[in-house]
């Protein structure tokens, strides 16, 4: 059944040079980099705060900024600038030489720090504002239609950065995109009080998982039917500055696409149900623990939905063999980390050829995905081309997890310290396109790279 929506005139809320859709750290860094260079920038975010999965999703970790052997720094820019700002407020802890976690963040402090970055850069901001539709005139994207408490209006701009995570702008423009046949499942995180004692020796992968009188991983497997808990993988970290508040990421919502309205609704409710079930399990079988549910996210932690078809598709081989690109705008060393849909647990693939399948409650299955090499790569790169959507809209660039990468490559590049860099690159590219009256595809990538360096990024 269809209904006809009556045509109507709507006001123009704002006009800018660059419009960023999505206020994750990726989107914020895009907006700030463009604004610092001199562009007039507006950012639109559907939540009440910036930070995306880090803040609204409660995921309080950023991975290492060093290569796999911790000898060379490969990430800087606004990631390290933000870490330094959080250090001044005792709102970040560092885990040195860790393949699992580089920095643990107080993400409530991060919300405020991102506000400060936006305000300092003079970026026009719309929170609680939902992107509705693109505004196309003569086959050219001129603006976006949004809705908020003021009603429906338009944001007009010359260049657009799709940092929505799900590629909403590109999808509604009809840009070709795809959903992986086994996209990684979503996780509902929670902050839980009374969890262990901050400062205990932590498991390198799962963090401090020590509860009194109960091994949670084994108990979850043993009592999964009683509490209707799917097999998954649990990990977390304490909130910096607290003694016993722990961010726990231990739920799994399988086979639901967060870019679908009904699936997303189901996932949010099911994720919260699983959080309660985990706490009920601990209350029954680990009664010496005095747990309290401190907070739930305002948005489920979504790992993967749409991928936009771009000028280049990053492959697993590119990542695992550390291929270098002339147009590289981001570096990363986080292992390929695939959370499976078709079986419980996850698989880690390392750049030195090791592979580990982890299924909680079972011994780790260690093997190799390739034989040893004389010299292993220690980092990989993301090319600028993987941010350039195919199709007619050449004033649009993507930044974040909707970039063009195959399933294996995405397992490594998807983490926040990597995606942060794609935001910075998109912001710099938007300014250069504006200043040179070019589209994103026409830019000199050497100039993008050199401008990123001037702004503090590490370009290799």
Descriptive account of the structure:
Keywords: 4Fe-4S, Iron, Iron-sulfur, Metal-binding, Oxidoreductase. Pfam families: FAD_oxidored (PF12831). The chain has 460 residues and is α+β, with helices and mostly antiparallel strands. The protein folds into 2 domains: 12-181 and 381-454, FAD/NAD(P)-binding domain (3-Layer(bba) Sandwich); 189-295, no CATH class. It contains 11 helices and 24 strands. The protein has helices at residues 25-37, 77-87, 107-121, 168-173, 216-222, 224-227, 261-285, 316-320, 407-413, 416-436, 445-454; strands at residues 12-15, 18-21, 41-44, 61-62, 92-94, 103-105, 124-126, 130-137, 140-148, 151-156, 159-162, 177-179, 189-193, 235-238, 246-249, 292-295, 306-308, 328-332, 336-339, 346-349, 354-358, 365-368, 380-383, 396-398. It has a 5-stranded parallel sheet. A hairpin with a 2-residue loop joins β9 and β10 (151-156). α1 runs parallel beside α10 (416-436) and α10 (416-436) packs across α11 (445-454). The longest helix has 25 residues, at 261-285. 50% of the residues are buried.
């Amino acid at each position: 059944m269809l209904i006809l929506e009556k045509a109507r005139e709507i006001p123009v809320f704002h006009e800018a040079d660059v419009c960023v859709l999505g206020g994750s750290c990726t989107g914020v860094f895009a907006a700030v980099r463009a604004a610092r260079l001199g562009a007039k920038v507006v950012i639109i975010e559907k939540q009440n705060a910036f930070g995306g999965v880090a803040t609204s999703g409660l995921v309080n970790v950023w991975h290492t900024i060093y290569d796999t052997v911790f000898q060379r720094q490969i990430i800087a820019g606004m990631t390290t600038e933000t870490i330094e700002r959080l250090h001044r407020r005792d709102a970040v802890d560092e885990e040195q030489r860790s393949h699992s976690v580089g920095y643990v963040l107080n993400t409530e402090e991060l919300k405020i720090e991102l506000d400060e970055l936006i305000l300092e850069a003079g970026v026009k901001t719309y929170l609680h504002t939902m992107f509705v539709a693109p505004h196309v005139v003569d086959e050219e994207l001129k603006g976006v239609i949004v809705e908020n408490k003021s009603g429906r209006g338009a944001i007009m701009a010359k260049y657009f950065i799709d940092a929505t995570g799900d590629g909403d702008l590109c999808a509604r423009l009809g840009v070709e995109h795809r959903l992986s046949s086994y996209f990684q499942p979503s996780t509902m995180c929670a902050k839980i009080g009374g969890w262990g004692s901050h400062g205990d020796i932590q498991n390198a992968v799962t963090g401090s998982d020590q509860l009194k009188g109960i091994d949670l991983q084994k108990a979850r497997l043993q009592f999964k039917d009683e509490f209707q808990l799917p097999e998954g993988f649990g990990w977390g970290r304490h909130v910096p500055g607290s003694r016993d508040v722990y961010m726990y990421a231990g739920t799994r919502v399988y086979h639901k696409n967060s870019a679908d309205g009904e699936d997303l609704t189901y996932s949010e409710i099911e994720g919260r149900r699983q959080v309660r079930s985990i706490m009920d399990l601990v209350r029954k079988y680990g009664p010496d623990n005095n747990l309290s549910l401190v907070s739930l996210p305002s948005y489920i932690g979504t790992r993967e939905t749409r991928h936009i078809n771009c000028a280049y598709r990053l492959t697993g081989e590119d990542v695992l063999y550390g291929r270098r690109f002339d147009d590289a705008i981001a570096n990363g060393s986080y292992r390929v980390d695939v959370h499976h849909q078709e079986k419980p647990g996850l698989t880690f693939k390392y750049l030195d050829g090791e592979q580990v399948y982890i299924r909680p409650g079972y011994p780790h299955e260690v093997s190799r995905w390739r034989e040893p090499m004389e010299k292993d790569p220690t980092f990989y790169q993301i090319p600028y081309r993987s941010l350039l959507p195919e199709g007619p809209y050449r004033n649009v660039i993507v930044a974040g997890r909707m970039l063009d990468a195959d399933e294996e490559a995405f397992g490594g590049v998807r983490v926040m310290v990597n995606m942060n860099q794609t935001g910075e690159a998109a912001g710099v590219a938007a300014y250069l396109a504006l200043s040179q009256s070019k589209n994103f595809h026409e830019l000199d990538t050497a100039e993008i790279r050199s401008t990123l360096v001037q702004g503090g990024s590490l370009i290799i």
